[in-house]
Write a structure and sequence with these properties.
mainly beta; 21 strands; 2 domains; 5-stranded mixed beta barrel; OB fold (Dihydrolipoamide Acetyltransferase, E2P); single chain
């Protein structure tokens, strides 16, 4: 049996070999690459590695849908894939792709077969072919077996800085990427650097005697992670919230009412929120309405200290 990650794609369900996947992550700011193939939409730096990003729709030669918050990047080896919305892990087996299986002609060479699992089937992507990047499409220079040279990284850093200056419209400070979400009718924001991934709240195991804000534990790729109701931490009513944010630190999942989008915001739009209590001390002025900027890591820590936080847009 093989473990597959199911991805909801506009063309249908796709399956990826889960053993090849290192992590799911929110899309970081990408460095645009002049002269690269259209499906190579950019690259980002992760630790000492430079990770190219492949857009599956462009790989198939079709226009991609507009980016959404749920379209996470799938990091697999030395590249990342944007393919749709990851949904679930299942166990199944591979079968040959039927000749009459409805699929784009351009997509058929990038499939390794049909993933069959209890309750359904999905087209299984061949990650080696999908993420293959020809040598002439290298980002700055051909990487050596030991990795990128100092000169390669210097050039990449210069490109990233130039891109940030362009996006900031020649202002002194580059914009910040903020995730916007809704809780109890109020709008909140968080720096995306605090966020590991966006997901839906799955099966939660209740913890007897836990504080009201602690919904319980859930399993994420073999790890037990606490699930907190962010609304309760903010002094709002306990509700069946289905969307969630997984933090980088501490290891926790925060349930929210609805995730809106990731938006780049100039620092000038972030202002003090007066004497508002709690950790929401900054207001983000947006064209379609304000949001309270939260420190989600500090909020998650309050579950251990038993403190309540109250905050909202004024």
């Amino acid at each position: 049996m093989t473990r597959f990650l199911l991805i909801h794609h506009p063309s249908g369900w796709l399956a990826l070999d889960a053993s090849r996947i290192q992590r799911l992550m929110a899309r970081p700011r990408l460095v645009r690459l002049a002269g690269a193939a259209p499906y190579l939409v950019g690259a980002f730096q992760l630790g000492d590695a430079v990770i190219p990003v492949v857009d599956l729709d462009l790989r198939w030669g079709i226009p991609p849908p507009p980016p959404s918050l749920q379209d996470l990047l799938v990091l697999a080896g030395a590249a990342a894939l944007r393919a749709g919305e990851p949904r679930d892990l299942v166990e199944g087996h591979l079968e040959p792709l039927p000749p009459d299986w409805a699929v784009l002609p351009e997509a058929r060479p990038l499939l390794q077969g049909l993933a069959v699992f209890p309750g359904g089937v999905a087209a299984a992507l061949d990650l080696d072919r999908v993420l293959e990047t020809p040598q002439h499409l290298s980002l700055c220079a051909s990487p050596t077996p030991e990795g990128w040279s100092d000169e390669d990284l210097r050039v990449l850093e210069e490109r990233a800085s130039a891109y940030a200056r362009e996006r900031s419209h020649s202002e002194g400070t580059p914009p910040r990427a903020l995730a916007l979400f809704i809780l109890g009718g109020e709008r909140y924001a968080s720096d995306v650097r605090e966020i590991r991934e966006f997901l839906t709240v799955g099966q939660v195991i209740a913890i007897p005697g836990a504080p009201p804000a602690v919904k319980g534990l859930t399993q994420i790729r073999g790890r037990l992670v606490p699930v907190l109701d962010l609304g309760v931490l903010l002094g709002k009513a306990l509700e069946g919230r289905e969307q969630a944010i997984r933090l980088v630190h501490p290891e926790a999942i925060l349930a929210v009412d609805r995730i809106e989008e990731v938006r780049e915001v100039q620092e000038a739009a972030i202002r003090p929120l007066g004497a508002a209590p709690g950790l929401g001390r900054w207001k983000v002025e947006l064209p379609d309405g304000p949001a309270v900027l939260l420190d989600l890591g500090a909020l998650a820590q309050t579950r251990q200290e038993g403190r309540g936080i109250v905050g909202g847009v004024s």
